[in-house]
Amino acid sequence: MQFLSLQSLSTHPEDAIINLIYSIIYLMCSKPTILPKPRNSFTTDGITFVQEFVFKHGAHRVPLIDVSTTGALNQIIGHAKFINEAYGNVYYRGVNGLYNTVLPSFVRGKRTVKSVGLNTLLNNICDDPLLSISLKLRNYKTPHGTENSRAKRFNKYCVEALLQHYAGYTRFIDIVDNHWVALWMGLHNFCFGGQGNKSCECQKRVINFGDYYEHMLATSSRSIDYNIYEYIILIAAPHGNGKNEYGIIESNELVEVDLRKALPSVFLRPHAQHALVIRKKGGMPSVKIPASFFDLATQVVGILRIRIDRSAKWLGAGDLVSANNLFPSPSIDHGYNDLLSRTDIFQGSYEILKYY
Asked: In this predicted structure, what is the pLDDT of residue 19?
């Protein structure tokens, strides 16, 4: 929970008031259950408490836990789900480093944001005849010429979720409900290049124990080299307020989209990756909102640390864990091919990323 100081109230009064409003809303919402420190909570070997990790916004604290066996991985994830059964679902986000925020790409490096440009793009895509058919969006216009606001809102959720996976500049963050996809994502670096940094190469991370040993000798230290680890962030999402439609779950604070249900499988990548996305709700597009509002750190219930040589061994080298499967080319991902052809819509920050 981020509490405001008198200085922030005087320096940025509008931001402070908005922050205060969202802080009150947050306090009224139910909270997920944090994983316990692994003392007597687990029966499987391979689970070791490392430290308490503190996030930047709200002083949210969760245990950082080292996991060294597949049995330990299964048990600790299962326990996170078990203790949050009444609250909602627990998902995974595989990353290659420790970060003190869980911010979507749309707000990173910014103090405040307005989503008017993104909102305009979402409306344009929803109203585009070809894309709306390709995406199987619902007709939100009634026979009387009025709009079904819920159908239109859900269409925009689907489109923004699509952009998150193919363009990567939205208010959503990626999560999965599959162990091995999360492990794969944390095991790889994603290196951007080309014109406008719109081309991406997936590079598998490896441990060079020779270099690591020399580093330890040179520093005369037993300090942890975090480059040899990947991290699985466990993120809880609350049960929705109503019926799950098109893979979309709305709660008071969050919206969750299961792209495997929200998008047809001609958009192959989300189905290959078992992809879901989640983001905070709220805010008028034309109103500036503090970037910290979109931080999902308060939904984190624990962080797992796995040495990358172990995760590489657990995953193996089958076709299902290859870049070609998880990021299929436009020759078989026909939805991806359709997006690449629409340079009239997907431009600038929303140009479609190209993986190789």
From this structure: 53
Give the C-alpha separation, 251 to 280, whole Å.
10
The amino acid at residue 134 is S
Query: Looking up tokens 């998902």, which residue turns up?
Result: 91
pLDDT under 50: residue ranges of the chain: 1-11, 222
Residue 163: closest CA among 123, 218, 215, 223? 123
pTM: 0.86
3-state SS track over 269-297:
HHHHCCEEEEEECCCCCCCCEEHHHHCCH
Contacts (Cβ under 8 Å, ≥6 apart) of 250 = 240, 241, 242, 281
Q: Which parts of the chain fold into alpha helices (H)?
A: 6-11, 13-28, 70-83, 116-127, 129-134, 149-166, 179-187, 209-219, 259-262, 268-272, 308-315, 323-326, 334-341
State the Cα–Cα distance between residues 204 and 326, nearest whole angstrom: 14
Could you tell me the CA-to-CA distances from 343 to 188, 337, 347, 350, 352 in Å, in that order? 29, 11, 6, 10, 9
Phi, psi of 310 (to 5 degrees): -70, -45
The residue to which tokens 């109203």 are assigned: 127
Q: Return d(Cα 45, Cα 87) in angstroms, integer.
A: 28
Cα dihedral 158, 159, 164, 166 in deg (nearest 10): 120
Nearest Cα to Cα of residue 285 among 174, 171, 173, 172: 171
> How far apart, in whole angstroms, are the C-alpha atoms of residue 125 and residue 211?
49
Distance CA 318, CA 120 (A): 42
**CA quadruple 222, 227, 228, 233: dihedral, nearest 10:** 110
Query: For residue 233, what is the DSSP state?
Result: E
- Angle between helix 308-315 and 179-187 (nearest 10): 130
pLDDT in the model for residue 287:
87
- Decide: helix, strand or coil at residue 258: strand
What are the extents of the domains in the chain?
A: 31-355
**Cα–Cα distance for residue pair 161/272, rounded to 1 Å:** 15
Identify the pLDDT of residue 1: 33
